[in-house]
Amino acid sequence: MGWHVALSEAAAVDLGNAVAFLARNSPTAAERIGLELVEVIFSLDQLPNRGAPVRSRPGLRKVAHRHYLVIYRVDEAAERVEIVRVWDARQDPQTLRLR
Fold first, then answer.
1. 4-7 and 80-88 beta bridge pairing
2. Span of the secretion signal (predicted)?
3. How far apart are alpha carbons 27 and 83 in whole angstroms?
4. Where does the chain have alpha helices with state H?
5. Distance between CA 86 and CA 37 in Å, rounded?
6. Is 12 in contact with 87 (CB distance < 8 Å)?
7. Which among 14, 42, 89, 91 has most CB atoms closer than 10 A?
8. What are the structural domain ranges in the chain?
């Protein structure tokens, strides 16, 4: 059995916003990419440390999919992965708020 994967409120909003933005031009693409991102997110239950460390933020890791970065933290003791943000990497990184 894999680890528990949980989305922060900010990550859930990010994911919803990404899908809504894409749906304006292509509902089909929005659904496909949204499902792909969900698959990437929940696959972390099997390999939680596969993402690269975020150099500027110790304790955070990231995994890329298309133009998006799934930013997360791993709690080894609790066998839990918390998704912190789902970030469109085409945006200005100075506006990214991580906790």
1. parallel
2. none
3. 25
4. 9-25, 27-43
5. 9
6. no
7. 14
8. 4-95
* pTM (predicted TM-score): 0.90
Whole-number CA gyration radius for the chain? 13
Rounded-to-integer distance, Cα 14 and Cα 19, Å: 9
Q: What tens digit of pLDDT does each residue of 48-61 get?
A: 999 999 998 999 99
Give me the residue label for tokens 């298309």. 66
How confident is residue 96, by pLDDT bands cut at 50, 70 and 90?
low
Class of 4-95 in CATH? alpha beta
Question: By three-state DSSP, how is residue 98 classified?
Answer: coil
Judge whether residue 1 has pLDDT over 80.
no
**DSSP-assigned letters across all residues of 42-85:** HHTTT-TT-SEE-TTSTTEEEEEETTEEEEEEEETTTTEEEEEE
90/60 Cα distance (integer angstroms): 20
* Nearest in space to 74 (alpha carbons), one of 56, 91, 58: 58
**Token output for 74:** 């791993």
Assign 74 to helix, strand or coil: strand
